UniProtKB/TrEMBL annotation:
Top-rank taxon: Bacteria
Range of residues in the leader sequence: none
Keywords: FAD, Flavoprotein, Oxidoreductase
Pfam families xrefs: Cytokin-bind (PF09265), FAD_binding_4 (PF01565)
PANTHER family given in the database record: CYTOKININ DEHYDROGENASE 6, GULONOLACTONE OXIDASE
Gene3D superfamilies recorded: 3.30.465.10, FAD-linked oxidases, C-terminal domain, Uridine Diphospho-n-acetylenolpyruvylglucosamine Reductase, domain 2
Cofactor dependence: FAD
UniProt xrefs under InterPro entries: Cytok_DH_C_sf, Cytokinin_DH_FAD/cytokin-bd, FAD-bd_PCMH, FAD-bd_PCMH-like_sf, FAD-bd_PCMH_sub1, FAD-bd_PCMH_sub2, FAD-linked_Oxase-like_C, FAD-linked_Oxidoreductases_BP
Family in the record: Belongs to the oxygen-dependent FAD-linked oxidoreductase family.
Occurrences of domain FAD-binding PCMH-type (ranges): 77-247
UniProt name for this protein: FAD-binding PCMH-type domain-containing protein
Source organism: Streptomyces thermolineatus
Length: 496
């Protein structure tokens, strides 16, 4: 079904914009109707033109669109596509994936472009924007079906109108559903409900061969499992059905300071294994001397009707946080989900949102989390994290993480550690230094049985990916062969 309003061939409405009419297979260039050079498209002999399928949306080749698609939140990697599809319908994605497939052109789906190392980019291929697929369907029972381009913030608002909510959120909620379902989607509720992948009951996808398929745990389960957390290697998610739970009306938010790493990690572990709170995370920040030795355990108790009224004495019993400096605040549930909004606005205002973000995201095995975290933190100075940067460190429960493509260390309580670095985008020497530091840190973690959480900026080879997927590799490779036999999808991940 076309999206509203129908825009079949509405390109003619853009008077100043050249309209792509086809592809010249000899010169491997898009052909525009006006003969002007538009971005990567040049005029080519019309007798070699292979006409474009009719589209509800727009195929863009103007410089601004190509430049936007050659960037992401990392601002480190820039691969320029030859065209960008702003789909007017799922049928557009099917048609263009088939078209590209037949011509050996790579295709990169792009949600909000918030990965940090070119994962949603392609040099010379087609970027498919999913943001127009932002429809949120009716809440039905305890599920909702949404388009892949819907933002989690919009999904939350729509479901909260029914007293329901997705059970797991990332810290920042302006990410696309398709984007986080391709990588994992972890948050403070993960120890209770798994990752966002574990909350999906059905997917609609367009495979690399251009087939529109509905899959679920019981229908084309191989595809379902390969797509969730599968880094876009087998199919483009176009829609997802998400499980919902009763939403709390208010939450109580606890921030508990610690000055000892081992005590901090042990208390976090205790909380997630006991399940006392609905949400548990933690942060490490720089002390006055610049060392990363200040720890804050962040926990949230949901109020009615999703949980009992919070009882501070019970919830905090036995915790060994520093006596001074604990903060406890009550807030509305949506205000809690959207808690980063003010900080993000301030970063944007200060221009820091546009800085380079060579992020390090790793999972540490629980049994060696303390020495590993200590050694990684010891190597950090304020310049390695940067203004507005932060270090997250919190435990997950492996038994709740059930999707095979989301790799986790072989340990019941692995820890996610994210060094969310920021540095000036033009400072290539610092960017290169931090990328090298990420690789060194990754190798240290890997050699102790840890893994990367694949949203950051760690230089990675195809052999590293094989290692990363480990026992899940044969499933991913088989699904790739079956559903994307020409290997056109999502080259920016560098998996195949
Ligand atoms: C400020 C910030 C905070 C974050 N916080 C968290 C957090 O708390 N927890 C967490 O888990 N992650 C977090 N992330 C990481 C985030 O989950 C990933 O970067 C996610 O992929 C971003 O979604 P996106 O829509 O921007 O995806 P994109 O960056 O556009 O795409 C990510 C990858 O998925 C592919 N892809 C995109 N859409 C689709 C689709 N529909 N079908 C198939 N493949 C697709 C892309 O090609 C790319 O390879 C955060 C990122 C930022 C910038």
């Amino acid at each position: 079904m076309p999206l509203e309003p129908t825009r079949r061939n509405a390109l003619h409405g853009f008077a100043a914009m050249a309209v792509v009419i086809g592809f010249d297979p000899l010169n491997r260039l898009w052909v525009t109707d006006d003969g002007r050079q538009e971005g990567g498209a040049r005029r080519a002999a019309s007798d070699t033109l292979e006409a474009l399928p009719p589209l509800d949306g727009t195929l863009l080749v103007d410089e601004a669109s190509l430049a936007a698609a050659a960037d992401d939140y990392g601002h480190i990697v820039h691969r320029t596509p030859s065209a960008v599809l702003r789909p007017g319908s799922v049928a557009d994605i099917v048609a263009m994936v088939r078209y590209c497939n037949a011509r050996g052109l790579k295709v990169a789906p792009r949600g909000q472009g918030h990965t940090t190392y070119g994962q949603a980019q392609t040099e010379g291929g087609l970027v498919v924007e999913t943001s127009p697929l932002d429809r949120i369907g009716q809440v039905s029972g305890n599920t909702v079906t949404v388009g892949a381009g819907a933002l989690w913030s919009s999904v939350a608002k729509a479901t909260l109108a029914h007293g329901l909510t997705p059970p797991v959120f990332t810290d920042y909620i302006e990410l696309s559903v398709g984007g986080t379902l391709s990588v994992g989607g972890l948050g403070g509720q993960t120890h209770r409900h798994g990752s966002q992948l574990d909350t999906v009951t059905e997917l609609k996808v367009v495979t690399g061969a251009g087939e529109l398929i509905t899959c679920s745990p019981t229908r084309r389960a191989d595809l379902f499992r390969a797509v969730l957390g599968g880094l876009g290697q087998c199919a483009i998610i176009v829609g997802a059905t998400l499980r919902l739970v009763t939403a709390p009306e208010t939450v109580r938010h606890y921030q508990l300071p610690y000055s000892d790493l081992e005590t901090f990690l042990a208390d976090q572990r205790r909380l997630v294994t006991e399940g006392r709170f609905s949400y548990v995370e933690g942060q490490v920040s720089a002390a006055e001397d610049g060392s990363f030795t200040t720890y804050v355990l962040e926990a949230v108790a949901y109020g009615p009707p999703a949980g009992p009224a919070p009882d501070d004495t019970q919830l905090l019993a036995g915790l060994r946080h520093d006596p001074a400096g604990a903060q406890i605040a009550d807030m509305g549930y949506y205000a809690f989900l959207d808690r980063l909004a003010a900080g993000v606005a301030a970063l944007k205002e200060a221009g820091l949102w546009d800085w380079a973000h060579p992020w390090l995201n790793v999972m540490l095995p629980g049994d060696s989390a303390a020495p590993l975290a200590a050694s990684l933190l010891q190597d950090l100075g304020p310049d390695d994290v940067g203004p507005g940067g932060v270090v997250l460190l919190y435990p997950l429960l492996r038994e709740r993480l059930r999707q095979p493509m989301l790799r986790t260390p072989d340990d019941p309580v692995p820890y996610l550690m994210s060094v969310l670095r920021a540095c000036p985008p033009g400072d290539t020497a610092t960017v290169d230094r931090l990328l090298a530091a990420n690789r060194t840190a990754y190798e240290t973690v890997r050699d102790s049985g840890g893994l990367q959480y694949p949203v950051g900026s760690i230089p990675f080879t195809a052999a590293d990916w094989r290692d990363h997927f480990g026992p899940a590799w044969p499933q991913l490779a088989a699904a790739r062969k079956c559903y994307d036999p020409r290997g056109v999808l999502t080259p920016g991940q560098g998996v195949f």
